[in-house]
Design a protein that fits this description.
The protein has two domains: 1-36, no CATH class; 41-228, Rossmann fold (3-Layer(aba) Sandwich). With 230 residues, it is an alpha/beta fold. Helix 9 links the parallel strand 5 and strand 6 (220-228). The longest helix has 13 residues, at 2-14. It has helices at 2-14, 31-36, 59-62, 79-90, 94-106, 125-131, 135-147, 169-176, 204-215; strands spanning 69-75, 117-120, 155-157, 180-182, 192-200, 220-228. Helix 4 (79-90) packs across helix 5 (94-106). A four-stranded parallel beta sheet has the order 1-6-5-2, sandwiched between helices. The chain has a two-stranded antiparallel ribbon with strand order 3-4. The termini are far apart. Bound molecules: zinc ion (ZN) (2 copies). Residues 45, 47-48, 50, 57-58, 60-61 line the site of one zinc ion.
């Protein structure tokens, strides 16, 4: 008992748990700081920026695109969210993903999830191995549990790509083409799917995933991302 306590103190000293927002000890993202993360006040059609509830794609844009909607929670350009996502993905502080997942659930309307299946945007096998986890899968499991709907791995990433954040818009669209395939046991027949990713910028990844899932038989595909990158 004493030894365990000693070990904990020792590890806290070597690897202190500090909030990415305020530096306070005890949590990687404290409740005070997560409450300060701003939410995008109005959602728009991802393609033409017309105001649309839940980021639903307008009829005109839907005739040319596969994604039925894209709901984005917060702008990435705010230090707390940016630092939290960075520490989560690049410093592999997996615990932050749990805090962000609960933050997202708190700020989402359950009607968005009605009769849907949650599907994470997959990582390439090698990248997932390097990171140790898929951040979108982690979020998916939290949201599925919170909203009582199934989460399924229906997509796999068959090509490793350069990170989208390092490319301009045109290159992002080319970079992502043909990178997804339906998972082996993915049998789709008219499902409503909510695709989960941590950050979206051009929405090219979501659009490509939607294309693959619709080809496999899904009825509607809605994207959901924690943050809007720039
Ligand atoms: Zn804090
Ligand atoms: Zn539109």
């Amino acid at each position: 008992m004493f030894f365990n306590k000693f070990l904990k103190t020792f590890f806290d000293f070597i690897f202190p748990i500090e909030c990415v927002g305020c530096g306070k000890n005890g949590s990687f993202l404290c409740p005070g700081c997560s409450a300060k993360i701003k939410i995008i006040p109005v959602q728009t059609c991802h393609y033409c920026r017309k105001l649309r509830a839940f980021g639903k794609t307008c009829d005109q844009c839907l005739s040319k695109n596969r994604l039925d909607g894209l709901f984005i929670l917060g702008p990435y350009d705010q230090p707390i969210l940016k630092d939290a996502i960075h520490a989560w993905k690049h410093e592999r502080v997996k615990e932050i993903g749990n805090i962000l997942g609960l933050w997202a659930a708190k700020n989402l309307n359950s009607s968005l999830f009605q009769s849907s299946i949650i599907v994470p945007i997959p990582l390439h096998k090698q990248r997932q191995f390097d990171r140790g986890f898929n951040q979108s899968e982690q979020l998916s499991l939290i949201l599925a549990q919170k909203f009582q709907i199934p989460a399924k791995t229906l997509l796999i990433k068959i090509k490793d790509t350069e990170p989208q954040s390092s490319l301009n818009r045109e290159k992002r669209l080319l970079n992502i083409r043909g990178v997804f395939a339906p998972a082996k046991d993915a049998k789709l027949n008219g499902e409503n799917i909510i695709l989960i990713d941590d950050i979206t910028t051009t929405g090219a990844t979501m659009e490509e995933a939607a294309k693959t899932l619709k080809k496999s038989g899904a009825k509607s595909i809605f994207g959901l991302a924690l943050a809007h990158g720039s």
